[in-house]
Backbone:
């Protein structure tokens, strides 16, 4: 059953793992894999909710081992509305 789940995740683009932390602790990986878009949304949500406790989030592609969040925010201008 686990093998089938891995194959389905690969075929549907669920290649991203969300890691969260709170109170300055180490990152803990969420068990479920997500698509890139969903993983970034989950990380944004966690950062927004956990900012009062010093929480942070990270998204990593499990196949390339590349961190895609929070590095995607570099160079953004936060004083303007960005849609897309």
Residues:
């Amino acid at each position: 059953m686990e093998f089938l789940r891995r194959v389905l995740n690969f075929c549907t683009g669920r290649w991203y793992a969300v890691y969260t932390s709170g109170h300055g602790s180490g990152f803990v990986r969420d068990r479920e894999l997500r698509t890139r878009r969903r993983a970034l949304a989950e990380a944004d949500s966690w950062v927004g909710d956990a900012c009062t406790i010093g929480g942070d989030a990270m998204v990593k592609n499990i196949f390339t081992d590349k961190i895609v969040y929070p590095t995607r925010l570099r160079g953004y201008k936060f004083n303007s509305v960005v849609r897309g």
